[in-house]
Every structure is written in C-alpha cells, then in structure tokens.
Design brief:
The protein is of the alpha+beta class. The chain is built from eight helices and 15 strands. Bound molecules: coenzyme A. InterPro entries: Acyl_CoA_acyltransferase, GNAT_dom, Plant_NAT.
Length: 379
C-alpha cells in the first residue's frame, strides 16, 4: 500500500464532494454487453441515501488520494412474519474502489467498517444487492465476507415512449391521500418481506408523487375493497440523480435508431419510439405494487400505463422502473423492456449478531413471501 496508511472515515461534504463525484464517474457498474450505467448525482454524492432515516457514507483515503467509497442506511423492516419478526437492517450500496487501487483489500475494509457502524447502531442484518454477473462484488461479499444469497427480485425497466399509452375505459382510478395509502399498505403489505415500518415517511416524502388504486368501472372504492383491485406508488428518482447509458449493446442501439426512424417515416405505425438513453435522463420508480382478485394483473398493467403517461408529460423522465419479488406473478403484467431489465437482481444478506445468525438460517430456508417491498429510498 506504498508508504501511506489507509484511512477510512466519514464523508465530509466540504472536503470530499468533488472527489467522490469524480470517483463515482470513473467506476462503471454493469455487464458490458448490456451497456454500462453511469449515475450523475447532480453535485450531491450522498443523494441516494439521504432520504433514509439513518445513513452514513465512508470514504477511504491513501495519502491525498480518495480511493474508495461506500454508503449505508438503516431501518426497521419485516423480515419474516409480523408482529414479532421485525428487524433492524442495514443496506449497503455505492461501494466503489478507484480502478488503480483495486485488489488491495480496500473494498473489503470499507465493508467491514460499515458493518461496524451498523453494529454500533443496533443492526441485526446487513444486506446488499448486486448484478448476478458482477464477479468482483459477488466474490467480495459472498466468498470473502460471508454474505449468503437471499432473494432474487426482478428489476423491470420500461422506456417512456413518444406516445401516450392507451388506457382501458373499463377501469377506474383513484389517487389516495397519504393517510389512506399508509393504512392500506399496513393492512395488506406489512407481512411482506422488507416492508419498512416507517412507510408513512416514504409516502410523505416530497419525491413520492402519490399512490393510486384501480378497480373495475361500476364498482366503488370505499369501506370494503372491490372484487379486484390493484395499487402502486410512484417515486421521482430523477429529482435526486440522473442516469446515462455508456456503452449499450448494438441491438439496443439499432432498435432505438430504427424505431425513431420508423416513427418519423410512418407516424401511424404503432411501434413505440425509444428515448435517447445516452444523454442524462430522469426516471420514476414504482413501488408498493399490490393487487387482489382475478383482474389484479390487468389492473396493475393499467396503473403502469397511467404512470407511463405521467412520465410522458414530465420534462426529463425517460424510463419507469420497478423491482418486484422474483416469484411475484404480478411482474408478468408490468410493461418492461428486456434489454434494460434484470430478471434476477441478487440480494445477499449477513447476520451481524449471534442471535440473528440462527434466525438467518431459518429465513434462508423459508420460501420468500410472494411480494417483496423494495424501498424507493434505496434505488
Ligand atoms: C467490487 C470492488 C468494490 C472491489 O474492490 P477491491 O478493493 O478491489 O476489493 P478487495 O481488494 O477488497 O477484494 C477482496 C476480495 O474480493 C474478491 N474480488 C475483488 N475483486 C475481484 C475481481 N475483480 N475478481 C474476482 N474477485 C475479486 C476477491 O476474493 C478479493 O480477495 P483476494 O484479492 O484476496 O482474492 C471494485 O472492484 C469496484 O469498485 N468495482 C466497480 C463497482 C462495483 O461493482 N461495486 C460493487 C457494487 S455492489
């Protein structure tokens, strides 16, 4: 490590902001064949976690060089079945080590230091999400740090097309008040894995654009739920940071160019033109997707179209993304583009205390609840 000792300390916005942004810019994440995804944090490298109840960012310094960074957030969630299976969990994200300093134990040390901060703050389990094919990240967390594979939710991304989506007139929609949305989520989703006990804070956050329910026209939304219904909420991630595709697959490029051309040449042709993902763009994140009854899938699809049209009207929102449990049947009704989506995001988990170690063995054996709550504050 040369003649400097590695120092790991908390992020100081005055000293570190520009250097962390520069490091994040230089670190690419994502498999080359799908196109590398760059994040522009708009001058605030901590923006991805600052809406969480408790958070921290650590930086690694070697002499004057800022060589690594990691972020973490803490919250209370459902891990198995309520009311007693609530646990404090720590989410690890944004681990980056400067390319020239890799394979010197810096990534490992940053995770260990963040785990220590978690433990001091009463966290029972640390968890992280990675692409299945990110070998460096997988080997670091699973082989070296003892994390175990936990769940494999699907990330579904749909580009916002140049046209509004057609919405079926057989369904009605309602935007819920925050209190109504909170009580509905507590009633129907509180047993869902990773359901955050401070759901009210998410719904009240200014980035939360609202919660909508859909049901069949002719029925009404009131004291009892309609025979079939669905709900979802929308988070404006683009207000926090922008995304940009660095090096997309040639098929992606060709499809984008040809669909834009088609639209110009044959405007009545119904092929949706795909936006230009090579310029920084914002996106909406759909969370809390839930439905009941035989029409729930169709209702979710219709709600997604409603969100698409909201995105279409906004200035720079070019995609709508969501993440749902791998075995959630509703995922089949969520419009998405395969090339931009990830069918198996890999969530890994580790117990930080002895008592939690035994519980974790049980949790891993238990099949996942069908739905999984993915917190928009951790996107
Ligand atoms: C993943 C990353 C943070 C690792 O940082 P690092 O400082 O190089 O990791 P370490 O030196 O602490 O490696 C510890 C162990 O992880 C594993 N590992 C790390 N990089 C690896 C690689 N490229 N290939 C295979 N195994 C790797 C090895 O087991 C290694 O131990 P070893 O060197 O004794 O074999 C770094 O490669 C990076 O910034 N990648 C780009 C961003 C990213 O993918 N972040 C993770 C998102 S979850």
């Amino acid at each position: 490590m040369g003649h400097y000792d590695l120092v790991i300390r908390s992020y100081n916005p005055h000293k570190d902001r520009a250097r962390v942004e520069d490091l994040q810019r230089r670190c690419e994440v994502g498999p080359a064949e799908r196109g590398l995804l760059f994040t522009d944090t708009l001058g605030d490298p901590i923006c991805r976690i600052k809406n969480s109840p408790v958070y921290n960012m650590l930086v690694a310094e070697l002499g004057n060089h800022l060589v690594g960074v990691i972020q973490g957030s803490i919250k209370l969630v459902t891990v198995h079945k309520p009311p007693k299976d609530l646990a404090w969990v720590g989410y690890i994200l944004g681990l980056r080590v400067a390319p020239l300093y890799r394979r010197r134990g810096i990534g490992w040390k940053l995770v260990i230091k963040l785990e220590e901060w978690f433990s001091v703050n009463g966290v029972g389990y640390a968890y992280m999400a990675t692409e299945k094919d990110n070998e460096a990240s997988f080997k670091l967390f699973v082989d070296k740090l003892g994390y175990v594979k936990f769940r494999t939710p699907a990330i579904l991304v749909n580009p916002v097309s140049h046209r509004m989506s057609k919405i079926s007139s057989s369904f009605e929609f309602e935007k819920l008040k925050v209190e109504e949305a909170e009580s509905l989520y507590r009633k129907f989703m509180s047993s869902t894995e990773f359901f955050p006990s401070d759901i009210g804070n998410i719904l009240k956050n200014e980035l939360s654009l609202g919660t909508w329910v859909a049901y069949r026209r002719g029925e009404s939304w009131g004291a009892t739920c309609p025979s079939s219904w669905a709900m979802l909420s929308v988070w404006n991630s683009g207000e926090l940071f922008k995304l940009r595709l660095g090096n997309a697959a040639s098929s992606c490029l060709m499809y984008t160019k040809s669909s834009q051309l088609m639209e110009k040449v044959l405007p009545c042709f119904k092929l949706p033109a795909i936006p230009d993902f090579w310029q920084p763009f914002g996106f909406y994140f759909v969370y809390g997707v839930y439905g009941e009854g035989p029409l729930s899938g169709k209702l979710v699809r219709t709600l997604c179209r409603l969100v698409h049209n909201m995105a279409w009207k906004s200035k720079d929102c070019k995609a709508v993304a969501t993440e749902v449990g791998g075995s959630d049947t509703l995922r089949h009704y969520i419009p998405h583009w395969k090339l931009l989506s990830c069918p198996e995001d890999l969530w890994c988990i580790k117990a930080l205390k002895n008592k939690e170690r035994n519980n974790l063995l049980e949790m891993i054996k238990t099949p996942p609840t069908i739905s999984l709550f993915v917190d928009p504050r951790e996107v």
